[in-house]
């Protein structure tokens, strides 16, 4: 009996370069490349520089969709006529890990929500093809806790799972199917053995995380709300530089500010938006000199509140995808996982299970 699976194909690894060259017909190619000892997403001229075996990039791929610095519109101060000049290019972002796919899904929920989606973001998303790839976690990854270790529940076109000599390529959209058909000769059908291997590799991923590196996020929203006045915020914030590295490297942070830049003759004004950070002292400054988050402790706590209290109320999911960038890049060595464990009181119990046993024996 011939085995057939309609929604996936096999790509031998020796055909990866052909795939990357071929996928250029769908837009400019963006992929991870090595930069000294780290990795970044970059536009690709030479596909031999594409890296598939990496843990995380410095910045998430959102920079090619949302933009850290962007022009919103320009207008004439005399006529007050507004013109949007943004024309996104078709682009293919290859090598996106599951956590970053979830990060984009969260941005989608924020920017495309309701009847009035952000037109600039919507235009960029329509022109973006997303190709994910499986990964192996390191000690800073905790996506298994945030439920983002796999791409389920996100929007992607193709997803590559490493099964040894080949990639198991799942097809997630019509665009993904179109790519496969256009490059049909370099793919082959799946064998039963390869399907079994795919299922085994997927099932084994959760065992790659070390318990000491992952937080228990069960009911963490309530824990954080109940610990609003905890001294832990002060203790953790004492080490914080307010540099904003944590938010600038985050796949889901989207806070921005804007300035109007007039031309030299003053006839045209351009509205420029740029990413900022709730950790900066000026961020919450409003008219009259009032600050909503006056000191480092309040700003530090605000970030956790937004991720684990605000997001669940707004979009019914955490605003953290467990990528580990914030704690990996933090110059002060602050680890979000450790802060969450302290808030939960991990280590407080002298005997694990004693609380449960005491309750049942009462």
TrEMBL record:
This is Anaerobic sulfite reductase subunit A. Pfam families: Fer4_22 (PF17179). InterPro entries: 4Fe4S_Fe-S-bd, 4Fe4S_Fe_S_CS, Helical_ferredxn. The keyword Metal-binding applies. SUPFAM superfamilies: alpha-helical ferredoxin (SSF46548). PANTHER family: ANAEROBIC SULFITE REDUCTASE SUBUNIT A. Residues 231-261, 311-340 form the 4Fe-4S ferredoxin-type domain. It comes from the Bacteria. GO terms for molecular function: iron-sulfur cluster binding; metal ion binding. Keywords: Iron, Iron-sulfur, Metal-binding.
């Amino acid at each position: 009996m011939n085995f057939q699976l309609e929604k996936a194909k096999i790509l031998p690894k020796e055909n990866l370069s052909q795939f990357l060259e071929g996928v250029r017909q769908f837009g400019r190619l963006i992929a991870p490349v090595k930069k000294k000892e780290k990795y970044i997403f970059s536009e690709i001229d030479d596909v031999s520089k594409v890296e598939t075996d990496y843990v995380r990039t410095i910045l998430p791929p959102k920079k090619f969709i949302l933009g850290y610095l962007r022009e919103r519109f320009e207008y004439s101060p005399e006529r007050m006529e507004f013109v949007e000049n943004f024309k996104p290019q078709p682009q293919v972002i290859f090598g996106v890990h599951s956590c970053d796919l979830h990060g984009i899904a969260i941005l989608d929920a924020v920017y495309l929500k309701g009847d009035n989606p952000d037109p600039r973001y919507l235009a960029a998303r329509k022109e973006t093809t997303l190709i994910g790839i499986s990964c192996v976690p390191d000690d800073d990854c905790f996506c298994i806790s945030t439920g983002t270790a796999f791409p389920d529940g996100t929007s992607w076109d193709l997803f590559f799972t490493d099964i040894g000599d080949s990639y198991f390529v799942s097809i997630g959209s019509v665009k993904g199917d179109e790519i496969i058909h256009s490059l049909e000769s370099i793919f082959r059908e799946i064998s039963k053995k390869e399907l079994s291997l795919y299922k085994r590799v997927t099932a084994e991923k959760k065992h790659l995380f070390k318990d000491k590196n992952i937080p228990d996020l069960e009911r963490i929203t309530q824990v954080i709300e109940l610990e609003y006045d905890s001294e832990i915020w002060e203790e953790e914030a004492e080490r914080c530089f307010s540099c904003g590295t944590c938010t600038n490297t985050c796949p889901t942070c989207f806070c921005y500010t804007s300035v109007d830049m007039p031309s030299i003759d003053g006839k045209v004004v351009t509205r420029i938006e740029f990413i900022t950070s709730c950790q900066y002292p000026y961020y919450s400054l409003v008219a009259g000199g009032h600050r909503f988050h006056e000191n480092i402790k309040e700003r530090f706590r605000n970030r956790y509140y937004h991720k684990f209290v605000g997001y669940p109320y707004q979009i019914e999911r955490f605003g953290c995808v467990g990528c580990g960038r914030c704690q990996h890049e933090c110059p002060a060595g602050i680890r979000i996982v450790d802060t969450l464990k302290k808030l939960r009181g991990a280590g407080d119990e002298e005997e694990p299970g004693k609380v449960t046993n005491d309750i049942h024996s009462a």
